[in-house]
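To whoever is on call:

I kicked off a structure prediction for a single chain this morning and the downstream step that reads the tokens threw a length-mismatch warning. I double-checked the sequence; it's 205 residues and nothing unusual in it as far as I can see. Pasting both halves so you can look.
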Amino acid sequence: MRPLLEMLRSRAFDPAWRFDEAPVPVDWATRRFGEVFRQGLTFRSDGMVLYPAGAAEALEYYRDAPRGPLHPPATVAQVDNAERQIERPLPELLRRLYTEVADGGFGPGARGFARIEDVAALHRRGREHGLPESWFELTPGGCTMYWYADLSQPGSPVLLYDADGWDPRDGQRPEDGVHHVTPSLEEWLSTWAEGGDIWAAALTQ
């Protein structure tokens, strides 16, 4: 099996694989493939259609596109500064993702991982909403869903959290909004890096 960081780098550097969906101009797709229609595709107001990452249409459109990350890797000093601000060390795997692959700008969902300069603000926002200080936001999951790594546990398990899934007025805690737990950050990242569906286990439980 290819090393995990190498697989992550491969996705981060390829615009057809960088996120869960790849934008392609509707006009280009229509000229190349005829009328563009496929159940489940999203058409944006800017004239782009979103294909699943790695779809044949996306691979062809981006075949000759430059390869490289949207944002160059962060420096060790930048990651150290982020750790000081959130007052917790990041898992070594996450540190290496930021310093050896890219400074965010790729990953699951539509937005992927945040820039390292933004993680402290995201962490503060979570604390303001009552989340445990050990939860580190990885990426939005859409609507009120978010993926968090629990930095207090061995392996940094990844939590699928619904902000509307709990109510403190009913005596509930943020943990009551957790719908699924992936045992480790490495497992969660590996699933995505290999082109797998990080939602599959959560949706079938």
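Update from on-call: the warning came from a stale cache, not from the record. Cleared it. Sanity check on the structure: Residues 17-61 form one domain.
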